[in-house]
Structure formats: structure tokens, C-alpha cells
Specification:
Mean pLDDT of chain A: 89
Helix content of chain B: 25-40%
Number of helices of chain A: 10
Structural class of chain B: alpha/beta
Number of helices of chain B: 13
Oligomer: heterodimer
Structural class of chain A: alpha+beta
Largest sheet of chain A: 4 strands, antiparallel
Low-confidence stretches of chain B: 312-396, 402-409
Number of strands of chain B: 14
CATH architecture of the largest domain in chain B: 3-Layer(aba) Sandwich
Helix content of chain A: 55-70%
Number of strands of chain A: 4
Largest interface: A-B, 24 and 34 residues
Number of domains of chain A: 2
CATH superfamily of the largest domain in chain B: P-loop containing nucleotide triphosphate hydrolases
Shape of chain A: flat
Strand order of the largest sheet of chain A: 1-4-2-3
Strand order of the largest sheet of chain B: 5-6-7-3-8-9-14
Radius of gyration of chain A: 25 Å
Strand content of chain A: 5-15%
Mean pLDDT of chain B: 75
Strand content of chain B: 15-25%
Distance between the termini of chain B: 9 Å
Chain lengths: 318, 409
């Protein structure tokens, strides 16, 4: 197996070196950004403050928060983009060519006629890039987390439930990278053309990402918050708002627009026996359960794609 | 203990029974049945799309048959035991162009953890003065072929499959590569199957023949058996409207060409071919061309290419096959019930002379055969007693064969 791993390393060493460079550059960038952010937050005392905040210690910090977002918001987005793009990059530039290039140039025949069997070759072909992808994405995700604990949530508006932050935090980018690799590898094996496989990988990964975004709120039951009468209550900024509506005395839910067209709004609500309003939301405490559940789904998909690749290889070449 | 792999071993290198492979809805190979004894150099010929590459893929274990079965030295080629003994140089000789020659050889060792002979692989590369630190992509066609062969032979195969190995080489290099293959086959007793379009190149190199057409076996057997079963008859026909003389048509006419009053007919003899015409033994190229031009001619599977029946209730076949295990001499083949004709003229006048020539050539063949056995023997002795330190010249100097023996034992 060591010899096989050497061969895979030798064949794809450019990709591995690029990954390593990406990891180092991204890590340094985020570490520097964190240092600057934390300096700004400390000097302006705006940690945990949002643009519009009810928190008394944030009074009068609106300009400072605005300045913070203007200075560092786009840089934080850039870091999130890097982590969001990583699974696509891994899938398109490592996964898709992994087998497609061999099948395209016929070099798979060179390997498959040697003593090591096709399945061991495939295992080595997948294992090394998978390890590299896991190391890179885990390292970048860890550094991002360290950065985000300072510059995330209220102060930058990069809440845990925003699409790019969610995709950059914790296990999500690691699982996505493995899925990208598996999808790319399978596409290359089935389609046998590098460029076509790259395009298909991009399409499939995009579709899976969109589907997961749609599915995400339903991965666990949301918490319902009920507001009664004229209570002045505000949903926390860190809570992921899903849905709101009216609540009747019998506890049944009515849509928000129930009385929107009615000129006498109050009497309309009364006529429907509305006594309160409700908000379905995921509090910040739901974040990690959601993230691990989604990562689990992604990993299952990655395993399925990999198993299919092994079965195709076994059927084709014994 | 030494298990010879070569021709003297009496083993069967390839045995295919009812082999078939389908790509989508088209059968690339169908009902392919033949046997290749060990130690032969087999030419695999046929027009484009005849199924040559498909057959090699199946024999190498690269592809799985849709029907039938193939065994290489008794093992399934797709199983690890079978795979280890087979080297397959596919069309275009794929190598990784960005790897250096040294890295390519290291790859060979990495992909063949057991049985890799570094000495043999490096020896082949050094012999061709291929720089070890050059990238494969920068090599000439001949050097590339040599590196590809070094990888193929470095795994010490018992069976070497080559798909158009000479196609993209200039005539000089072609000659060198063919000579290299012959030397390797003689030294190590490697069985070689070589698919080729170059009909002239095959003559004199190959002693076994397998011709495919439209996915089926057309001809199979020892070259001498197959050629010996045919005669090329040339003479004048009765008139412009007349066909072939009826006595010729009584034989199996593979192909006949008529120009003016002259005719030339390639026939598979069903008896004596005496008559008012000239009868010569066709060359391998003439025979192959005749079969390629006449795709409907009936197939010929010589007894030497028939699979050995495994069931015990076939006494007749077993009896006939009993002598098959013995090393066969090139000049004494023949299809039972069919007289072996001489190398050239078969009409009475030259018979005497022909016999003399035949005797001379047979003596040469004999000495060659014993020479070859001698080399193999030396190699094997050296393998067992002299694996460390001192290496002699030739077959014994490359640590090959230990794996092969283990597999055979």
C-alpha cells in the first residue's frame, strides 16, 4: 500500500501542494484578520454589539459597529467564501480528474494490469486526497472558528445561520469537502472525461448545497416563541427566524397576513380570536446539533458515492 | 524446486472456452475457443475491429467476459494469482508522461510488491541507453517502448500480451524491439501474444497463430500446422469463362484470384493436390491475407489449439492429447490425417530437393531448441542457488521467477 500511496502522491503532488499553500495562506490571512478585528473591538468596546441593539452597553456604538463592518466585513466574507468554495475546488480539481484523466489517457490500463488489484488502487487513489482534503478543511475550519468567535455574530452580522458562516463552521466544510471528492471521483469514473466530470461535479455539488440549504431548518424541531399583548419583546439577533404568525385562543396558528387587507386591523384580529403572535426559530443553542446532523447527511452521501465507485470498479475490472 | 514456464513445461498458457464480450449491443468477441500452449510466441492477427484488443483485455483480466471463461496458467486472470503472472502492454503503451524513467520503474515496483525484478527492468532500460532521469514524455518512440516493456517485463510475467507493440516505431527500432522480445522470450520462457497489423513482421517471429475476424476465431494453431494445411495453387484455367478446375474446387477454397487465364487459389487441402498446376506452401503473410480477404472462409482450429477436455469420459481425445505435454519440435507438427507438405514445391520434381532442405532446417531447429532449453536451465539454476551477490549474464541475473515458482507450487 505504501508504494501505491507514493504513486498517488507523485501523480497529484501539484494538487496537494496547492492545497497545502491554500491552507497556509488562508490560515495566516484569518489569523492576521483576527488580530486586527480584536484590536478594533477592544479599542471601541463594541464586542457583542449590533447595528441596532437593545443592550445598554452598546448604546451609542452604532457608528463604531458600522465602521467595523465597513473595514472588516468584506474580509470576513472572503474567509467564509474560501471555506465555502473549498469543497467545490476539491471536487472539481482533485476529485473529477482523479480517475477521468487516467481513463481519458488510457493510463488506467497501465495500473490495472499490474499485480495490485483495481480496488486497492481505487482505495489508494481516494484515501490520500481524502486525507489531504480533511486536513486542509479541518485546519481552515478551525482557524475560521477562532476568527469567527471574535468577529462573528452581532458585530459583523455574520450570524451562525447565515449561509456562508454556517457552511464555514465546524464539521460542515470538512464533510462537504469529502462529498466533493467522492462526487468528483464517481463522476470521473462514470463519465471518463475530465472536463465533463468537472462540470458535472460543479452542478451536483451546487444542487446538493442548495437542497441542503432548503432542508436545513427542518433538521431539528424549531423552538416557538410566543408574544402576548403589548409586551415589548425582541427576538435575539442570534436566533434564526423561520416563521411568524398569529395565535388564537384555542392555540391554532393563523398566517401573518390574515388581517392585512382589513381596514379595522384590531377588530379583525379580535374576530379571529387572535390572542398572541408566535415566532418559530432556532436559537443559537441549536447550531451544533444542526451542523452535525447536516454533516452526517453529507458524509452518508459521500460514502454512498464512494461505495458506488468501488462497485463500478469491481464490475468493470473484477 | 524449479518449475519451468517455457515451452518444455507442457503447460497451457491460455485456455479460452466460449469467450464473449459485448459492448452495449454489439458483440466485440463471440464464442472464442482456443488453447495456447506455454512458451509460444503467438501472433494475434485480424482486421480492425476483429476483437483483438478485446481478447487481450479479457485474457489480461482488464475486462470481464460477458460469457464463457478464460484461464491463464490455470488461474482466473482477474484474480490476484492470475494477475501477477500476466503483463499487458496495451495499445499506445500508456505511461505517465510527467514521471521520470526512474520514477516509472519505481511505480512498477510499487504496483507489483511481489515478484518485481529491479535488475531486469533497469537492465532493459540501461541496455537501450535511456536516461533514468528523463521524463517519460520527452522520450522518443523507441525509448518509450523500451520503458513500457521494462515495466511489463519487470513484473516477471509468464504471459506477455502486446497490443500493436511495433505499430508506431520506425523500421530500425521495430527490428530492435522484436529482437528484444525474442531474446526475453528465449531467456525466460515467457509466452508472448502479440497483436499486430504488420503481417510481414510476424513471419519468422511467431510460431503460433491466432486469427480473429468479426469477433470469432478464424485460424488457430502452430504456424507450421496452419500453413501446412494449406496450399497455394497457381495455374491456367480452361478458358476465360471457366471457373476453377473442379479438382481444386473439391478442396476447401479459402480464396481464389483470377486474372486473365491465370488463377491463384489458396486451398485447405482435403487430399493430394497434384494436377496441372503449381502447388506451393504459402507464406504466413499470403495465408493471412487470403483469410482477411475472404471473411466467409471456414475457420480452422488446429488440434494444438483445441482446449484440453477436462472430463474423463473422453478417452479418444485424451489419448491423442497424451503426447501434447512433450516438447514439440517445430518441424514435426501436422494435422492428423493430413500429410505435411514441404516448404515449397510439392510436385514430384522437387520433392527430393525439398526433403534435403527440410532435413537441414530441422537440424538447425533441433539445435536451437536445445540451446533454448539450456539457457532456461542455466537461468533457473542461477535463480535458486545464486540469488545473492554474484549474477551471471542473461536469464539468471534478474531475480525473476521466485514468485512464479511460488504460484506454481
Amino acid at each position: 500500500m505504501r508504494g501505491l500511496l507514493w504513486l498517488v502522491w507523485r501523480q497529484h503532488r501539484v494538487a496537494f501542494v496547492v492545497l497545502l499553500a491554500l491552507m497556509v495562506a488562508g490560515g495566516v490571512y484569518m489569523a492576521v484578520l483576527r488580530g486586527r478585528m480584536s484590536g478594533f473591538l477592544d479599542s471601541h468596546h463594541i464586542a457583542g454589539c449590533s447595528l441596532i441593539s437593545l443592550d445598554p452597553h452598546c448604546a451609542g456604538t452604532q457608528n463604531a459597529v458600522d465602521a467595523f463592518r465597513a473595514s472588516y466585513g468584506s474580509q470576513l466574507r472572503l474567509a467564509e467564501m474560501l471555506l465555502m468554495a473549498l469543497p467545490f475546488l476539491v471536487g472539481i480539481f482533485i476529485g473529477a480528474p482523479l480517475l477521468a484523466r487516467e481513463l481519458e489517457s488510457g493510463t488506467h490500463k497501465l495500473v490495472l494490469t499490474q499485480s495490485v488489484g483495481p480496488l486497492r488502487w481505487l482505495a489508494a487513489k481516494i484515501a490520500l486526497p481524502a486525507a489531504a482534503a480533511v486536513v486542509t478543511s479541518a485546519a481552515l475550519a478551525a482557524v475560521f472558528m477562532w476568527l469567527w468567535q471574535v468577529g462573528g455574530e452581532e458585530v459583523s452580522g455574520s450570524y451562525w445561520y447565515s449561509t456562508t458562516a454556517y457552511g464555514s463552521l465546524g464539521p460542515v466544510p470538512v464533510a462537504q469537502c469529502l462529498l466533493g471528492l467522492a462526487v468528483g471521483t464517481l463522476a470521473g469514473l462514470l463519465l471518463r472525461r475530465t472536463v465533463v466530470s468537472m462540470a458535472v461535479t460543479l452542478g451536483v455539488m451546487g444542487a446538493v448545497s442548495l437542497a441542503l440549504q432548503q432542508l436545513r431548518p427542518y433538521l431539528m424541531a424549531p423552538t416557538t416563541v410566543v408574544f402576548r399583548g403589548n409586551e415589548s419583546q425582541q427576538l435575539k439577533d442570534t436566533s434564526w427566524f423561520l416563521e411568524q404568525g398569529h395565535l388564537t385562543g384555542t392555540g391554532s396558528r393563523m398566517p401573518t397576513g390574515l388581517c392585512a387587507a382589513d381596514p379595522s386591523y384590531e377588530s379583525c384580529l379580535r374576530s379571529h380570536n387572535v390572542v398572541a403572535s408566535y415566532v418559530d426559530q432556532h436559537p443559537v443553542s441549536h447550531h451544533w446539533q444542526l451542523a452535525w446532523t447536516e454533516s452526517g447527511i453529507v458524509l452518508v452521501l459521500a460514502v454512498v458515492a464512494t461505495v458506488i465507485a468501488f462497485r463500478v470498479m469491481k464490475r468493470r475490472h473484477g | 524446486m524449479v518449475f519451468p514456464t517455457g515451452r518444455a513445461s507442457g503447460r497451457t498458457a491460455i485456455e479460452a472456452v466460449g469467450l464473449g464480450k459485448r459492448y452495449r449491443r454489439r458483440w466485440a468477441l463471440r464464442d472464442c475457443t482456443f488453447r495456447l500452449p506455454a512458451g509460444r510466441i503467438c501472433a494475434l492477427a485480424g482486421p480492425n475491429g476483429a476483437g483483438k484488443s478485446t481478447l487481450l483485455s479479457l485474457v489480461s483480466g482488464l475486462a470481464r467476459p460477458a460469457e464463457g471463461a478464460v484461464r491463464v496458467f490455470g488461474a482466473d486472470p482477474a484474480e490476484p494469482a492470475g494477475r501477477a503472472g500476466i503483463a499487458y502492454l496495451t495499445q499506445g503503451k500508456p505511461l505517465y508522461p510527467r514521471l521520470t524513467v526512474a520514477e516509472t520503474l519505481r511505480m512498477g515496483r510499487a504496483l507489483n510488491p511481489v515478484g518485481w525484478s529491479r535488475e531486469r527492468a533497469e537492465g532493459l532500460v540501461r541496455e537501450g541507453r535511456v536516461p533514468l532521469d528523463a521524463r517519460v514524455g520527452s522520450l522518443s518512440g523507441g525509448q518509450r517502448t523500451r520503458v513500457a516493456l521494462a515495466v511489463a517485463l519487470g513484473k516477471c510475467p509468464e504471459l506477455l500480451l502486446l497490443d500493436e507493440p511495433l505499430a508506431d516505431l520506425d523500421p530500425l527500432v521495430r527490428h530492435q524491439v522484436a529482437a528484444l522480445l525474442m531474446a526475453q522470450a528465449a531467456e525466460h520462457g515467457t509466452t508472448i501474444v502479440m497483436a499486430s497489423h504488420l503481417l510481414a513482421e510476424l513471419d519468422g517471429v511467431c510460431d503460433y497463430l491466432l486469427v480473429l475476424g468479426e469477433g470469432r476465431v478464424r485460424l488457430a494453431g502452430e504456424v507450421d500446422d496452419v500453413i501446412g494445411a494449406h496450399s497455394l495453387l497457381m495455374g491456367e484455367r480452361g478458358g476465360p469463362g471457366a471457373g476453377l478446375p473442379p479438382r481444386i474446387a473439391a478442396h476447401t477454397v479459402v480464396e481464389a484470384q483470377v486474372s486473365g487465364r491465370r488463377f491463384a487459389a489458396m486451398v485447405r487441402r482435403q487430399g493430394p493436390v497434384d494436377g496441372p498446376w503449381e502447388a506451393v506452401e504459402p507464406s504466413l503473410e499470403e495465408l493471412l491475407l487470403a483469410y482477411l480477404r475472404a471473411p466467409d472462409a471456414p475457420a480452422l482450429i488446429a488440434p494444438s489449439a483445441e482446449p484440453i477436455p477436462r472430463r474423463s469420459h473422453a478417452p479418444a481425445r485424451t489419448g491423442r492429447g497424451a503426447g501434447r505435454g512433450e516438447p514439440r519440435l517445430r518441424h514435426k507438427p501436422g494435422i492428423p490425417g493430413m500429410p505435411r507438405n514441404g516448404p515449397r514445391h510439392q510436385d514430384g520434381t522437387d520433392q527430393q530437393q525439398h526433403n534435403g532442405a527440410s532435413d537441414t532446417s530441422s537440424a538447425t531447429d533441433m539445435s536451437e531448441t536445445s540451446d533454448m532449453t539450456g539457457v532456461t536451465g542455466t537461468g533457473n539454476t542461477s535463480d535458486t542457488s545464486d540469488t545473492s551477490g554474484h549474477h551471471g549474464h542473461g536469464g539468471g541475473s534478474d531475480n525473476c521467477g521466485r514468485r512464479g515458482k511460488g504460484a506454481a507450487a
